[in-house]
Amino acid sequence: MLRVSAFDFSIYHVKQGSLMPTGSDKYSISEAGKEVAEKAAWTLAAAAADATNAGALVSYLQLLRELHGAQGDEIEAAAPANGRFLENGFSGRSPVTIKYLRGRARKGMAGSALAFTGSVGSQVTQVDAVGILQHGNASASTIAHMKMLREIAMRYPRSTTIQAWVNTCMVAKSAKLAIRATDLAGAAIPIGAVGISTSLASALGRAGIRLKYETVICRCAMELHWRARVEMSLSGLGGRSSSGGTGKPNGPASSVLFELFRRRGLTRFLGQYETAKIINEPGGWNAVKDKLMLM
């Protein structure tokens, strides 16, 4: 029988005053510093190379580095189960979630290749047309998501729980919008110093968001995922025998998740994610976390 009672927090440990899913707190200050330093080094190297007409070579080397990292992410894709599921007797594999995470890694490779194309092209056009398209599309899609999330929250004005879920999602989406707007400015303004500044600002922003909000976003992802599973089960759309598919939301949590996974803009032509199946899987919260942390 499904229980929506208080969660047994014994599977959590305390970190910096917050409850954090064990094994999900891998991002540290030292890792953030390393990530920003690496981005700064590549940015400055590209700027110096542009001055000697060697920008394409540095961009190519950076592409190889990013592809190598993305391949590692694809191989190591894993989806540990949501503690809420385990508490209620639901365990097992999460093949659709693993497929999503591996697909995200492959998209990272494709994004790196597009960024390389835009970087090389900008040496002729002075603006990164590919970057403008990428960041512009991401910004528009994020604005649409935020609008729909606000509407979901407005349907349940008396529920502090639902307001907290949506507020957490809005923090993540607002951060993404700010970072993408910065990247868009760097791609559109043909001034080297602006490109360097926006690139470093984006790297610092991404690292800062992960350090400050990853704990609460992990927790929110687990809670949303479990509540959505309960909603879908009660509606007859989920459950152990569910065949999944695209399905339809049946409550506030499932509405939030269906909105987070809804494809808009250029990506809508790729088809929709198998959101109902992700909700139904014990490890599905990992995909929810990925969606919220994707900057």
Structure description:
- With 295 residues, the chain is mainly alpha-helical.
- The protein has one domain (26-293).
- The chain is 69% helix and 3% strand.
- The chain has ten helices and two strands.
- The chain has helices spanning 29-51, 55-75, 83-87, 95-125, 129-155, 160-188, 192-235, 252-260, 275-280, 285-293; strands spanning 12-15, 18-21.
- Strands 1-2 form a two-stranded antiparallel sheet.
- It is globular.
Order of helices and strands: EEHHHHHHHHHH
- In order across it, which strands form the biggest sheet? 1-2
Radius of gyration: 20 Å
Structural class label: mainly alpha
* Most strands sheet: 2 strands, antiparallel
Poorly predicted spans: 1-23, 72-76, 238-246
Spatial separation of the terminal alpha carbons: 38 Å
Q: Got a strand count?
A: 2
Question: What is the 3D form?
Answer: globular
Q: How much is the average pLDDT?
A: 74
Number of helices: 10
- Helical content stands at 55-70%
Strand content: under 5%
The tally of structural domains comes to 1
What are the main properties of this structure?
10 helices, 295 residues, two-stranded antiparallel sheet, 3% strand, mainly alpha, disordered N terminus
Topology:
Blueprint: E1 12-15, E2 18-21, H1 29-51, H2 55-75, H3 83-87, H4 95-125, H5 129-155, H6 160-188, H7 192-235, H8 252-260, H9 275-280, H10 285-293
Antiparallel strand pairs: 1-2
Helix pairs in contact: 1-2, 1-7, 2-4, 5-6, 5-8, 6-7, 7-8, 7-10
